[in-house]
Amino acid sequence: MITKEQVLHALSFVEDPDFKKDLVTLNMIKDIEITPNNIRFSVVLTTPACPMKDHIERACRNAIAHFIDKDIAVSIHMTSKVQTKPNNKQLDKIKNIIVVASGKGGVGKSTVAANLALALQLKGAKTGLLDADIYGPSLPIMFGVEGERPKATKTAEGNTKIEPIEKFGVKLLSIGFFTDPNQPIPWRGPMVSAAIKQLFNDADWGELDYLVVDLPPGTGDVHITVAQNYPVTGAVIVTTPQNVALADAKKGIGMFMMNTINIPLLGVIENMSYFTPAELPDNKYYIFGKDGGKRLAERFGAPFLGELPLIKSISDAGDNGYPIAIDEDEPISKAFLSLAEKVAQQISIQHQLSV
Ligand SMILES: Nc1ncnc2c1ncn2[C@@H]1O[C@H](COP(=O)(O)OP(=O)(O)OP(=O)(O)O)[C@@H](O)[C@H]1O
């Protein structure tokens, strides 16, 4: 009869490619069951959006075949438990806060935040999206929930809790739900801080693996409020390839790296990198220059998360009330799923580094 020790020994030769340690040392193997013709076990990954999932499963099968028996049936349950920062006390049900930032406005930060949140949800993670872009909250339009008002309920202790609006499986709150779009608000520092804290603390987010936060462009009060009051896991920087956008993105990154803020960079994403006409889907025209985002990432030692094309369907979808990632028939939705995997992977690496 095969023993659990034999199974663990075989699996101790399978390395997690991101953490460079074996699955047994990482405590990822659970629930081993052995019958005369079957070996079953679970592999607990650090995120349901793990890009290495298939690779790890194959490596486990190969290890069992090589070290134990090449003919035995193997059932592997690939599952996950998203990690969180140690001492995550302020928001104990929210495991990870991901801020999405840009230096310049209009580079597609909200589009990336919306599609990233949706793609994480499609990969099986419990996800929320907080639109903290006080100067131009656009997520209600992108999710087709403009004009809706979140319900407020009283808790047993007498506190008011705001219910996020749920759309496409993502829990959404926006500063735009509470303001009149026709009435510009002259935001002052203390008002900004109070409004942002309400969206974090007074909302009934429930349990979340990831809360994606769409920050306003630039560096300002919202950034400081979020960074100094909440345990942010990391920042995703969105830029376009033009030098003016890259120069502003550098300032944005500089702010996250300041000692008083100190938020890890999960990576840089370049949006509107090239134009692809719908009738020539294989052609790429780099109309704004090439590789600027990649060089920016390299300069700060951050991962480059990829290029997104300038295509009409992305903007049409946003205007029509859905992030394009939901549309499986659109080839670009795969790019957002892959972006979500890379961001989730970087988060897991951050946690591993801090162990
Ligand atoms: N890759 C893309 N292809 C085509 N259109 C895009 C792309 N990315 C964003 N857009 C469009 O560009 C416009 C600006 O995008 P978005 O609102 O996401 O930018 P932003 O950086 O969040 O702006 P803000 O300054 O308001 O924060 C929107 O109409 C959006 O649909």
TrEMBL record:
Keyword Metal-binding: yes
Positions of the MIP18 family-like domain: 4-65
GO terms, molecular function: ATP binding
Domain of life: Bacteria
Subunit structure: Homodimer.
HAMAP family found in the cross-reference section: Mrp_NBP35
The protein, known as: Iron-sulfur cluster carrier protein
